[in-house]
Amino acid sequence: MSVTVTPKAARQIRKALEQRGGGFGLRVAVKTSGCSGYAYALEFAEAPTAEDLQFESEGVQLLVDAKSLPMVDGTQLDWVREGLNEGFKFNNPNATAACGCGESFAV
Amino acid sequence: MSSCQSQPNAASSCSTGAMPPAAPFVLPEGAPPLNVSDAVVSKVGAMLTEEGDPNLKLRIFVTGGGCSGFQYGFAFDDVTKDDDLCVEVGAIKVLVDSSSLQYVVGAEIDYEESLEGSRFVIRNPNAASTCGCGSSFSV
Questions:
Q1: pLDDT tens across A30-44, in order?
Q2: DSSP per-residue codes, A52-105
């Protein structure tokens, strides 16, 4: 089981942590919401908790709680520019449907 | 020559041109057709400097698509069309064609930056519902 990031996403995560003034890494979680049932949530993490699984990818630390992991296992997090907007994109092999913007998904 | 309309209280030397054809939505009297936030002015200004072309304008358009039926689009354009509404605010110009304008008249255009990403957003009084991220809406 794992979650990975692309080099572009890793660069962005490092940049965001720097701007913030440090931190352990990025937490990737899943919450129930959005038009397709689930939505991704990203936040800065200070330290792993007992429920977390920890992955290192492209030099950045990623934390995923045990409940969220089955829904995001195998996901590659990318940083993409779409038109004038840019943001993280979740390439999630478990998702069977996704919202137009990719923020919400179904499994 | 300019068909730009100044936003109230915007420092601008732009002349006021003809309004586009009548839209089905009626704006409250005196309300601006679009509210452009300071964050948009500052971000677009920086992007134009990056592009090296100060004549580019921010075009906002509405197309069919997305999970709610319509979706917003943002692009840079150097051509102003006859049916465009042009709003000048600060150093930037925002264009909306008349068929898109009917869906976004009275809306607030903003630019949001967060950990997830940075994007242009529209807070639209005409939208009956929106997609999670706000890129799609229904009327």
A1: 988 756 678 888 999
A2: EEEEEETTEEEEEETTTHHHHTT-EEEEEEETTEEEEEEE-TT-SEE-TTSSEE
